[in-house]
Specification:
This protein has 19 helices and 20 strands. It is α+β, with helices and mostly antiparallel strands and 523 residues long. Among the domains are: 101 residues, Alpha-Beta Complex (Dipeptide-binding Protein, domain 1); 218 residues, Roll (Dipeptide-binding Protein, domain 3), CATH 3.10.105.10. Keywords: Signal, Transport.
């Protein structure tokens, strides 16, 4: 984030953001000490290969297995993990030289080498995975020696050091059997190693006693179980069957809050949930139709009804706390959405010659709250005289359809984005044409906006980046390419016997079971 004070941002974002670490009802040793942690996830992971993009359920497990060149501190700064120090940056911010620790090993005993780092940051582009846009600025890599790598970029890339928090994988192991690596035999260099996985039922990890870090985890085992039904998750934490659960739904917030032996951990997260339009084909390719849809319902009321107190209204693609830290005009952007006005909506539909028999297709993931947002839009369209189908799809089916640009597949989709604390991560992946079909399906190709996003990525001047982003975001909001919706707080509920329970604003890095500042134990 250049000259932005990340520690100041952390103070405004909440010094801790919820973490999926947890206590335990599990294994005791002879002295009665509890050393197994049971975590109730909201959704099941589907793979453990970080070269492919992790969804949040994947990351909750995978981030315990793998290490990174750099990792996050308590805030948004990064510190060495596999690296010995900060990178040496030369050649006008386009050359990074990184030295690795010589004692780090993977779970199979192989050393972590510069070649493994090189593979981990180049494979996403070579294989065309959803992470390719993060690593596409890399021009060349050079292995100086077994523990030193030089990375040259085509242009300055302001958030490249944060990108180096990406996990490092053992090249030889993954190349030998990529499918097994992502499912039955993931091998990393983190403090926990993979034991077993039954998709939809559980994942089990155990402490890696040969961990090369400064401290071993206090926990001996961690068991993650997906519980997609919210009321069941709440029952599990209430009865003590789970020590921690991921997410507390708004409608059950007071139930958990009133439990004497359980604490809710919540604070703003680096996330963004939104309604996106197909700007490539069909009626929603016309900005008048997108504006008409904005007139058919109240996003404020939908967020108040379905999201609060587990989250808050958001008015731009940049998380509110991050946007405010960057001194962006958040209050002005909040004035752009319209109040409901069905007469004005119908005028715009008529101007755009939308046929009376049009039926909008709205895609939503397997998430009750985003489904409610989709249903709210459908109800508004029906009040304006148009039919709408809300299709709730499993993740694989949803992503196969939502990014095609084909009006037969979708007109609208409701999704979210959570990853790095830099505007580029949201703007490039959600709006730039290079991310089409991979991370977004809006196909909005206004040349000025495309150029502004690209320029902002390639400069390290914070003031220049700010102005470029403000211009691009204002256009995107006025054109209703997205209707920003809300941002969840990072919310977990944990039993009070969980000690050193820490949370982090960047949701995918949670749960942090062992860091430079915490080591979770069970009292």
């Amino acid at each position: 984030m250049g000259n932005i004070d990340r520690r100041a941002f952390l103070a405004t974002a909440g010094a801790s953001v919820s973490l999926t670490v947890a206590g335990c009802t599990g294994t005791d040793d002879g002295a009665g000490e509890r050393t197994t942690l049971n975590v109730g996830q909201a959704l099941s992971p589907v793979h453990f290969d970080p070269i492919e993009q992790f969804s949040n359920p994947d990351a909750i497990v995978g981030n315990r297995i793998y290490s990174s060149v750099y990792t996050y501190t308590e805030g948004y700064d990064v510190e060495p993990e596999l690296a010995t120090a900060a990178p040496e940056i030369e050649r006008d911010n386009t050359r990074y030289t990184i030295e690795l620790r010589d004692d780090a090993q993977f779970h199979n005993g192989d050393p972590v080498t510069a070649e493994d780092v090189e593979y981990s940051i180049t494979a996403p582009v070579e294989e065309g995975t959803p992470l390719a846009s993060l690593f596409s600025p890399i021009e060349t890599t050079e292995l100086i020696d077994e523990n030193t790598i030089q990375v040259d970029l085509e242009n300055p890339f302001a958030m490249f050091e944060e990108v180096l928090t990406h996990h490092v994988v053992p090249k030889d192991v993954r190349e030998a059997d990529p499918e097994a690596f992502g499912t039955s035999d993931p091998i990393g260099s983190g403090p926990f190693q993979f034991v077993d996985w039954e998709e939809g039922n559980f994942v089990e990890l155990e402490r890696w006693d040969d961990y090369w870090g400064d401290e071993l985890p206090a926990l001996e085992r961690v068991r993650f179980e997906p519980i997609d039904e919210s009321t069941t998750r709440i029952t599990e934490i209430e009865t003590g069957a789970k020590d921690v659960i991921e997410t507390v739904p708004p409608q059950l917030w007071s139930t958990v809050d009133e439990m004497d032996d359980t604490t809710i951990y919540d604070s703003p997260s680096v996330g963004y949930f939104y309604v996106a339009f197909n700007c490539n084909e069909g009626p929603t390719a016309d900005a008048r139709v997108r504006e008409a849809i904005d007139y058919t319902f109240s996003m404020d009321q939908a967020v108040e009804r379905y999201i609060e107190p587990a989250g808050e209204r958001q008015h731009s693609p940049i998380p509110t706390d991050l946007a405010e830290e960057w001194d962006m005009p958040v209050d002005e952007w909040a004035e752009i959405p319209h109040e409901p006005d069905l007469d004005r909506a119908q005028e715009l539909f008529d101007e755009a010659d939308v046929p009376d028999d049009w039926t909008a297709t709205i895609l939503v993931p397997p998430d009750d709250n985003r489904e409610e947002i989709g249903l709210t839009i459908a109800n508004g369209l029906q009040e304006a005289g148009y039919d709408a189908n809300v299709e709730r799809l499993e993740w694989g089916s949803l992503l196969d359809r939502a990014y095609t640009g084909n009006a037969d597949d979708y007109n609208i989709y409701v999704l979210g984005w959570i990853r790095y604390a830099d505007p580029d991560d949201f703007m490039y992946n959600l709006f730039h044409e290079e991310a089409e079909e991979v991370n977004q399906g809006v196909y909005y190709r206004d040349p000025d906006v495309q150029e502004q996003i690209a320029q902002a990525r390639e400069t390290v001047d914070v003031d220049q980046r700010r102005e470029l982003y403000i211009d691009a975001i204002t256009t995107l909001l006025e054109e209703r390419v997205h209707l920003p919706s809300y941002n969840y707080y990072n919310v977990y509920a944990a039993k009070n016997y969980v000690q050193e329970f820490e949370t982090h604003p960047i949701g995918p890095v949670n749960p942090r079971l062992l860091t430079s500042y915490n080591n979770v134990t069970l009292d």
